Amino acid sequence: MTTRSTDPLYADWVVVPGGFLHRGTPTEEVAAVFDRHRDLQVDVEWFRKEAPRTDVYVPTFRIARTAVTHAQWSHFTADTGRRSPTGEPDHPVTGVPWAEATAYCAWLGHQLDRPVRLPTENEWERAARGDDTREYPWGDEFDPRLANLREHGAGGPLPVGSFPAGASPFGVLDLAGNCDEWTSTEYARYPGAPAGVPVTDTYATDPHVTRGGAWFHCRDLARCARRHGAYDPDLVGIGFRLASSV
Predict the structure, then answer these.
(1) Under a CB-based contact definition with an 8 Å cutoff, are residues 185 and 120 in contact?
(2) Torsions phi, psi for 238 (to 5 deg)
(3) What would the pLDDT profile of 93-152 be if each residue is shown by its tens digit?
């Protein structure tokens, strides 16, 4: 019998209502954000890419409650002859190139007879942050018990949805930790960005922004505003979740 966790057509869709995203971080607060993460030996330039804070209207869309799992991915690879990374069935599939993630979306959309895609960067942050300016999907204070990041100590991926108390305001799970997630948006500095913010992310192996952080990343990547990229050529820890327009 097919269950939800193994059904290739199953996605637990969450409808995120249209509304304003308070995107990014105010330029004048970047130094304070950097200070709070100084112990991680991060570069202040990483946080400047989040500035400035801008209100952006995001239309209603659907987003999957959790990332695509190995079980779901295996049906796609069996049908298309693509490679299938090894992993537990209920863990997020990772190490997936952006083009392969978008191919999965196209395949699933064909099965469902409706377009399926990756979320835009704005949609991802809207799903994580909701209507306010919270620092993390669950609120303003970091709690290592609410996400599978290095501070949690699991040392590897966990089953999707393992941290229900870390849900976003719309009930979307794992938007911090477990796997870093592709978006459909290519990196560009925000309009009005501080001087020195790069036009392109030259360190990334792919131009598309990732969000959320993986199990080996630290708490700075759990922040709703944090912009990341695929810096490992093997794409270790990078997975994806589905989105759909309404």
Answers:
(1) yes
(2) -100, 120
(3) 999 999 999 999 999 999 999 999 999 999 999 999 999 999 999 999 999 999 999 999
As a whole number of angstroms, the distance between CA 73 and CA 100 comes to: 10
Q: How far apart are CA 41 and CA 147, in angstroms?
A: 21
Q: For residue 119, count other CB atoms closer than 10 A to its CB.
A: 26
Rounded CA-CA distance 190/193 in Å is 5
Domains along the chain? 13-245 (3.90.1580.10)
- Quick one: how far is CA 139 from the chain centroid? 17
Compute CA distances 173 → 38, 64, 109, 124, 201, whole Å: 28, 9, 22, 12, 28
In angstroms, the CA 152 to CA 215 distance is 8
For the beta carbon of residue 225, count every other beta carbon within 10 angstroms: 22
Sign of torsion over alpha carbons 104, 18, 130, 190: positive
- The pTM (predicted TM-score) of the whole model is 0.96
